[in-house]
Amino acid sequence: xxGEITQEIRIAQTGVQILFGFLLTVVFTPxxxxxxxxxxxxYIVTVVLGACATGALIGPVSLHRLVSGRRVKAxxxxxxxxxxxxxxxxxxxxxxxxxxxxxxVATDDDYVPWLVGGVVMWYGLxxxxxPLWTRWRHTTE
Length: 141
Known about the structure:
By secondary structure, the protein is mostly helical. It has helices spanning 2-26, 37-67, 73-106, 112-138. The chain starts with a helix and ends with a helix.
């Protein structure tokens, strides 16, 4: 199971690191000073969420390195799985707040929260509903 977890994490790590790196540069652009206070707060929350997601998704690598050879693979797999799930939830929050910020800056329309809500529902379907349905439907007892 350790090999499967590391493969899953590689995918999520790449995405969160690219997103986090991009977010870190925004504050240094001239346009940042022109953002409304609310948008600056959303930006700060987004950066913090991105940092937390990055930490959670890199955590299993550090965990493996520190416990390797200590005969605690079952416990390491359990904790790595938990960290990965937390990291995915934080990545979901980061992507949601990033989308909210970008759409608020790009347009002043009232449909932005609805559009973001629709995207969050799509994430929920792809990331949780479909996998859980597949697990329920195809798992034998």
